[in-house]
Amino acid sequence: MHRESRPISFYVLAAFFGLFVLFLYGPLSAVFILSFQGPQGGLTFPLNGVSLRWFQNLFETQAVGNFGASFGRSFALGLMVMTATVLVSLLAGLAFRRRFVGASPLFYLTVASLVVPSIIVSLGIGVLFQQIGWRPAWFTSAYGAHLTWTLPFGVLIMFAVFNRFSPSYEEAARDLGASSWQTFYHVVLPMIAPSLIGVGLFGFSLSYDEFARTLMTSGSSNTLPLEIYGMTTNVTTPVLYALGTVTTLFSFLVIMVTLGAILIVNRRRARA
Amino acid sequence: MNNLLTRATPYLQATPLLLILGFFLAIPILLLLVVSFWDYDFAGMYPDFVTFNYAETLGSWVTWKTYGNTLKFAAIVWAITAFLGFWVAYFLAFHVKTATMQMVLFLVCTVPFLTSNIIRMISWIPVLGRNGLVNSGLVGAGVIDQPIEWLLYSDFAVILAMVHLYTLFMVTPIFNTMMRIDKSLVEAARDAGARDWQIIWNVILPLAKPGIAIGTIFVVTLVMADFSTVQVMSGGQSASVALMMRNQMSLLQYPAAAANAIVLLVLVLSMVAGILRIVDIRKEL
Q: Fewer CB near the terminus (10 Å): N or C of chain B?
């Protein structure tokens, strides 16, 4: 690299990157702006005045199905998936640090979970519950379906984290007389905490937005993505955009809180 | 006693993962394999051993056309995302100087991917629609007289939305491998007189191949499994294998959908196995 001045290629690539970011965010900002459409306005530009009417519309239950209840379900399911993903991935990550019979098949089962088309998982779990005679519900069958998507991410992240984790810290702790639980709790856990928070964010977000895996597994009550998908075919007012703005802002909030938590944990560790 | 416990530990730690993936992934897929040989009518499905679900699926030209269409989407979306992913990752890894700036720009790319796919899909409607931003811009500038009809509800819209949804799955693994390329290799190539494009072609591209391979696995499997993007963005005018399955499912033709699922699964898994021959994932993590 030239240290003195940036080459022309830098500016070309920077412009390319800028266009890429515009491509990512441009359409989202169109939705954001149009959700403030005036009462007479439609689904496209121009803005016909500015109002909060479509946000109000969102909270009137009759107008667009039950947005509040499906949001509640998605939120609860996201938290359940997040908790299970963090715990199970952490345990599996610890297991993969040692040799055990069946480690390789289990690893490939995890990778398979990532690549098996989501609609096949959805159909398979739906048929399984039907054959056993259990009623599918968002907190049973859809919960399991979401875990088949979030766990491989969690396990692979933990796998990568422990690949870079030097065992000398644990040896030092053990030499100083720490029990294996003390070593884990006081040495390993603080060091991997930021990654665990990241796994939690993945678990929550992937579940909160998951659609295809929920399709055959959520039973009689909708999660939020199913509700939104239903709206795309039969709602023709900007209330759709208002819902999009609200859920996107909620996702942003979750990401910000997580990043904040990671920063705090890192800072505390730096001070200690 | 203590020794026994130590040896049992990894098994106990791996058990939750095995149980969850066993019950919610392995058993359902085995069950689909069984069900794909069952008989069915409008009222239900019946244990049997018939092969006509496969015969019907594989014998119909609609199926072949749908598979062809899905593979076409996969190939085009793969080519575009690989191009975008390579250059975005290259810019972040080799042209952005400070680690903080790299992380910030990478997060800027990541954030939209943690929001709802369906919202990101419908966000193209006000941009591409008949009275959308692109059309009104072009008409206003006098470039065209009539709004372009094929921007929305077309294969073009499907591909654009898929690229929008799935590019990060290409950027992240390529960025990850590029960050691990030893910068002194680039310096050495430059000292030896290599030009920029020679460094990219002969040094960086070969070393970034594992990342490209992992990104390819993600993008190809996501496109092959997609039905919502195809349905929404083509306005029901285009087809994909998963969408065909979805229609069979809504008609309660589960054995037919199961047969389709098995065919699709075999196709996807053999594509992934082919890519895994090139790259060892465990080394790349």
A: N
